[in-house]
Amino acid sequence: MNDLGALFLNAMLVENMPLTLFLGLCTFLALSRRPGTAVGLGLAVILVMGVTVPLNQVIYAHLLAPGSWAWAGMPDLDLSHLSLLSFIAVIAAMVQLVEMLLDRFFPAIHASFGVFLPLLAVHCAIVGGSLFMEERRYGFVESLVFGLGGGAGFALAVIMLSAIRARLAYADLPDGLRGLGSAFLLTGMMSLGFSAFAQMVAP
Amino acid sequence: MQPKLWPILAAPLIRQNPVMLQILGICSALAVTTTVATALTMSVALTAVLVMGAAIISAIRRHIPSTIRIMLQIIIVASLVIVIDQILQAWFFELSQSLSVYVSLIATNCLVLGRTESFALRNPPLPSAVDALGNGLGYSLVLVTMGGVRELFGAGELLGHTVLPTVDQGGWFEPLSLMMLAPSAFFLLGLMIWGLRSLIPEQVEQPEFQTPEVAEAQR
C-alpha cells in the first residue's frame, strides 16, 4: 500500500508530466489562458489516463509481450514492436467511447469538459503514460495508480499555470514576451519549483 | 520544376518556424535537448518521418474519406515511427536508450499531424515533401541551437569534445548545473521566442486587454 502511495506521489509531483517530462505541452500551453477551461482539461486528462493506462497494460501483458502467446503454442512470438500502434488505437477508441458514455449518462459532466475529450486522442502525456508503463513493466494495479497520478499531476500544473496567466492578463509585458513567451518563462519557474519535490519520494 | 518550391522550403526556417511561432512539437523539442547528439538524432528522426509521412499521405489524399482521415494519418505516421525506432534500437542502441520514449512520441507530435493535416492533404506529393522538409529543418534548427547552448554551458562540451575546460578537469569553467535540468529548457525557449519576436515585430500576439488610455489614444 505504501509503495502505491509513493508511486502516486512520484507520478504526480516528481515526474510531473508537463513540467519535468515535457509531455502534453501543446494543450498545456494552448488551453491555460482561463482557469475554467484548465479545470475541464485537467479532469478530462485524469479520467482518460486512469482508464487507458491500465487497459493498455492488460493488452500489452496478454497480447503483445514476448511469450504471451505461449498458451496457443507460439512461445517465441514477440509482438512488442506493435505496442505503439495498438496503444494509440486503444486510446483513440477509448476517448470516443468515454465521450459517448458521458454524453448518454452524465450530460452535465459532458457539457463541462466533454469538448476537450477529442483533443486527448493524440495527447503526448497520455500516450507517454502508456509507453512508460511498458518500459517500466508495471502491473495492473500499479498502472492504474500511475495513470491516475500522472493525470492528477497534469491537472495540478495546468490549473496553476492558468491561474498565474489570468493574473498576468492585465500586466504590462514587453511586446515580444506577450502570450507564448511569458507562458514559457512562467512554466520554467513552475518547473524550478517542482524540482524541489525530487527529493521527496525516494526512488 | 515549379519555381515556387524555394519559398515553401525557406519560410518555415525562421519566419514561420514550427516550434517558435506555430507552437507545434514542443514536447520533444524540450525533452531531448540536453546534448547536441540527442537533439541531432531526434531532428533527423523527426524530419525523416515528416517527409515520408507527408509524401505518402499526399500521394493517397484523393482516396482518403475525410471522416477517418485523422485515424489514417496516425496509423501511417505511427508505422513510420516504429520503423525508425527499430532502426535506432538496432544500430544506435545507446542513443535510443537516452531518447527513451520520445522517439515513439513522434507519432503524436503535433508538428507531424499539423503539417499533414494542413498541407499534405491539399497539395501534390512534391510540394508536400518540400514543405515537410522545411518544417523539419526549422524544428532541427531550434533543437540543435538549444542542445548546443545547454551542452556548452551545462557540461562545457560540444558533441562530446571539451570546449570550455571545467574545474573538475583542471580548467576554469564552472558548469551551470541548471542547464542540465528541465527548467532551463523552458527559459531558453521563452528567451528565444522573445528575441525572435523583437526582431520580427509582426509575430507579436495582440494583447487581450487594453487600458482605457491606450484605447483612447489609438482612436
Question: What does this 3D model show about the protein?
Answer:
The complex is a heterodimer of chains A (203) and B (219). Chain A is mainly alpha-helical and 203 residues long. Chain A has helices at 2-14, 17-20, 25-30, 35-64, 83-105, 107-113, 124-136, 140-168, 180-194. The mean pLDDT of chain A is 81. Chain A is built from nine helices and no strands. Chain A has one domain. The longest helix of chain A has 30 residues, at 35-64. Chain B is mainly alpha-helical and 219 residues long. In chain B, β1 and β2 form a beta hairpin. In chain B, α3 (36-59) packs across α4 (69-91), α3 (36-59) runs parallel beside α6 and α3 runs antiparallel to α7. The longest helix of chain B is centred in the middle third of the chain and has 31 residues, at 125-155. The model of chain B has no long low-confidence stretch (mean pLDDT 77). At the A-B interface, α3, α5, α7 and α9 of A face α2, α4 and α8 of B.
Shape of chain B: globular
- Measured as a percent range, the helix fraction of chain A is 55-70%
- Return the domain count of chain A: 1
Q: For the residues shown, what is the average pLDDT of chain B?
A: 77
Q: Which blocks of ≥5 consecutive residues of chain B have pLDDT under 50?
A: none
Largest sheet of chain B: 2 strands, antiparallel
| Beta fraction of chain A | under 5%
Q: Give me the oligomer status.
A: heterodimer
Q: Helix and strand string of chain A, N-terminal first?
A: HHHHHHHHH
Unreliable residue runs of chain A: none
Could you outline the blueprint of secondary structure elements for this entry?
The complex is a heterodimer of chains A (203) and B (219).
Chain A: H1 2-14, H2 17-20, H3 25-30, H4 35-64, H5 83-105, H6 107-113, H7 124-136, H8 140-168, H9 180-194
Chain B: H1 5-10, H2 26-31, H3 36-59, H4 69-91, H5 93-99, H6 110-120, H7 125-155, E1 157-158, E2 161-162, H8 182-199, H9 212-218
Antiparallel strand pairs in B: 1-2
